[in-house]
Amino acid sequence: REFVLTQMIPGTALGVLLGDLVYTWMAFRLAHRSSRSDVTAMPLGLDTPSTFAVGTLVLLPALNQGMTRYGLSHAQAMVFGWHVGMIVLVLIGLFKSALAPLGSRIRRWLPRAGLLGSLAGIALALIAFVPLWRQIAAIPVVGILALTMILATLVAQHRLPGKIPGALAAVLLGAVVYYAGDSLGRGLGWPIVPSLGNQEASAWRSPLLLPDFSWNLLWWQRVTIQALNCLPVMLPFALATIVGGIDCTESAAAAGDEYDTRSILLTEGLASVAAGACGGVIQNTPYIGQPAYKAMGGRAAYTLATAVFIGTAGFFGWFAHLFDWLPAAAAFPILVFVGLEIGAQSFHATPLRHYSALALAILPALAYVVLIAVDEVTSGGLAGHANMVVQPLRCLANGFIVTSLLWASALAAMLDGKLRRAASFLGVAAACSLFGVIHSPLQPAVIAWPHHVFGQMPADATLRCQSPYHWTAAYILAALLLVLLHIVQQPSKP
Questions:
Q1: What's the pLDDT band for 490 if we cut at 50, 70, 90?
Q2: How confident is the model over 375-434, as pLDDT tens digits?
């Protein structure tokens, strides 16, 4: 815990600091160009799926590799795993920066239903539902009360006396009720809220990027080899943030703030490079809360305050104290509002005829949420009938952001009568399926040649029917069907 807070977090916070400062400058520049005072900055933070993935798929395997293969002590192996994570993050940042110029073209090519549909799926399924399930419902005495305050003040727009911000009031009210319930429960001998389980906060020390034993060429050769081995596992997460950044730019445009997609993506890529070079291990990405922050009154400078706070707190170790003091059930209801606001805005900014495409885009995100619960309960170990039930779910969940985008775009094109265009989206889905960008049957999902993936699948014939070859064939057949329908159908009158 101390190693993470004092070595990994400062560099990670630096990436957020730099990215948010650039987004603040972009917002002020847009406000000046458009002569508007209501421009809201794009938010930037850490990519949540990558946060979990880098721990389980990069850091821990590298830690074990350092001890078992290279004979390192645990302390040295921690540094080895950390350096592997840094190199992986730098490579991911360069990869995202190289693809940034394509962002504007992709945004022009894809329909709004596709871009905002995948965003609505993330917002409702992950940002709103997961906190509701994991934090709020776990402590309803605190969570439901704070959520009600959020819904009344931010969604229904009822003002509090003295113009107290609703989000701040919700957090403070939840914290007061939590600590009062904790004290009352101790007195009565009957639990009202679970204990926070406070841990002793780590003492702050200046981050040390290069310990004495890491100043040699052999060390960095081993680190680089391990990082390259991890890259196929982490590239899907990088692609997801690229799609997410394009989605976020479209969402901001729908809310009235038109940012340059290339600049948004290039900023997140270079911020990730800077974070990795300074010890960070988690990639940066634009957050999808811009419309919600605009509704809360956030303008061009709120990301400046965020940058200063995150940078200072990350470098000086304040997060350890904050985590120990603030109950999650009091703070997480704000995410429910963010999810609801983005979901509502996605439907509001999409043509009525494309609503079914938006709804379709939410389904892969629901698969991802269910898979989170299944993997936590089973620790990823399943066999027999249970594996047959879960495997299709895993295929739907892996790469769900890209899947949502392509499904919604294809259906929107069908609804517009553009069957050949819809077929082209299904063709892209076929190519993505072949290499594991979407529908990977493995845990974790990896970008790999299809025969490598097929060789790692269970021998059961039913499960092998969900291989990359089968998903690719399915999309190709679906695309051919649409082309055939385009050929045989009669031109319809306006």
A1: low
A2: 888 876 666 777 788 889 999 999 888 899 899 999 999 999 999 999 999 999 999 999
* Structure confidence by residue, pLDDT tens digits, 244-262: 888 889 889 988 999 999 9
3-state secondary structure string, the chain?
A: CHHHHHHHHHHHHHHHHHHHHHHHHHHHHHHHHHCCCCCCCCCEEECHHHHHHHHHHHHHHHHHHHHHCCCCCHHHHHHHHHHHHHHHHHHHHHHHHHHHHHHHHHHHHCCHHHHHHHHHHHHHHHHHHHHHHHHHCCCHHHHHHHHHHHHHHHHCCCCCHHHCCHHHHHHHHHHHHHHHHHHHHHHHCCCCCCCCCCCCCCCCCCCCCCCHHHCCHHHHHHHHHHHHHHHHHHHHHHHHHHHHHHHHHHHHHHCCCCCCHHHHHHHHHHHHHHHHHCCCCCCEEECCCHHHHHHCCCCCCHHHHHHHHHHHHHHHCHHHHHHHHCCHHHHCHHHHHHHHHHHHHHHHCCCHHHHHHHHHHHHHHHHHHHHHHHHHHHCCCCCHHHHHHHHHHHHHHCCHHHHHHHHHHHHHHHHCCCHHHHHHHHHHHHHHHHCCCCCCCCCCCCCCCHHHHHHHCCCCHHHHCCCHHHHHHHHHHHHHHHHHHHHHCCCCCC
C-alpha distances in angstroms, 50 versus 35, 117, 236? Answer: 38, 21, 10
**Per-residue pLDDT, 232:** 76
Q: Give the distance, in angstroms, between the CA of residue 405 and the centroid of all CA atoms in the same chain.
A: 15
